[in-house]
Write a structure and sequence with these properties.
Arc Repressor Mutant, subunit A; 220 residues; Umud Fragment, subunit A; two-stranded antiparallel ribbon; 6 helices; 7-stranded antiparallel beta sheet
C-alpha cells in the first residue's frame, strides 16, 4: 500500500496556516498570486512578518516561486493535499441557489416568435461546465468598452497557460499585475490590445497567460 506523506497541521503555527489559506483563496478568486503587501493588509500584520512566514512555508515545501519576483508564489502539491485534508471552510449554498435561475423559454430580438414555455434552469455550470479551471472575475476599468466589456461586468474565465492570436485573456505582465486584453503574438514580444482609444497597447517580452475569457455576465 502506498502511503502519502503530508505535513501535519500541528507543525504549522496558526498564522502560517492562516497565510496558506489566504494565498489559496486569493489565487482561486483572482487566478494570480498575491504580493507580500496584499497578504500583510489582508491579515493585518507587517510585511516583514509575512516575509518570515513565507520563508518558513518554503522551507516546509508548502510554497514555491521565484524570490524577488512579484506574484510568483504557488502552493505545492503538499500544501494542496494539506488544505484538502482540512476540508473546505467556504460558505455553502442551498440546492435552489446552485440550480440557477429558472429558464422558461426564448424571446425574439428580431421578428416575433411563438411564445412556448419550456421550463428549465439556467446556471453557470450548464453553460460552462462544473470544472475546477472555470472561474469569474469582476472587471474594473474601461479599457475594453469597445468590446462591450464594461466596469462592473463579470468575465467567465478558463485557466490556461497559452492563448491564440486575438483571444481575450487574463495576462500577467512584467510587474506581476494581471490585465484583461486581447492577446497578439509579435516577432519578439506580445501585444496586449485594449479596446478603448484612450489606452495604449501593452508590449511585453515577459507575459504570462493566466486564463482565456469564455463568457460575460452583466447586471442591469
Amino acid at each position: 500500500m502506498q502511503l502519502e506523506m503530508t505535513i501535519p497541521k500541528k507543525r504549522l503555527t496558526p498564522r502560517q496556516m492562516q497565510l496558506l489559506k489566504a494565498i489559496s483563496s486569493f489565487q482561486a478568486s483572482r487566478c494570480y498570486s498575491p504580493t507580500i503587501g496584499e497578504m500583510a493588509s489582508e491579515l493585518g500584520i507587517s510585511r516583514s512578518t509575512v516575509f518570515e512566514h513565507i520563508a518558513e512555508l518554503r522551507r516546509k515545501d508548502l510554497l514555491s516561486g521565484c524570490q524577488g519576483r512579484a506574484r510568483s508564489l504557488q502552493l505545492t502539491s503538499k500544501a494542496q493535499n494539506l488544505l484538502n485534508q482540512l476540508g473546505d471552510d467556504s460558505p455553502t449554498y442551498s440546492s435552489q441557489a446552485s440550480a440557477g435561475i429558472e429558464l422558461v423559454g426564448k424571446v425574439a430580438a428580431g421578428l416575433p416568435i411563438e411564445a412556448v414555455e419550456n421550463k428549465d434552469n439556467l446556471s453557470l455550470n450548464s453553460h460552462f461546465g462544473n470544472r475546477d479551471d472555470i472561474f469569474a472575475l469582476e472587471v474594473t476599468g474601461d479599457s475594453m468598452v469597445d468590446e462591450n466589456i464594461r466596469d462592473g461586468d463579470f468575465v467567465i474565465c478558463r485557466r490556461s497557460p497559452t492563448a491564440g492570436d486575438g483571444q481575450l485573456v487574463i495576462a500577467a505582465v512584467d510587474n506581476g499585475d494581471a490585465t484583461l486584453k486581447r492577446f497578439y503574438k509579435e516577432k519578439h514580444q506580445v501585444r496586449l490590445q485594449p479596446a478603448n482609444d484612450d489606452y495604449e497597447p501593452i508590449y511585453s517580452d515577459n507575459c504570462r497567460i493566466e486564463a482565456v475569457v469564455v463568457g460575460l455576465l452583466r447586471k442591469f
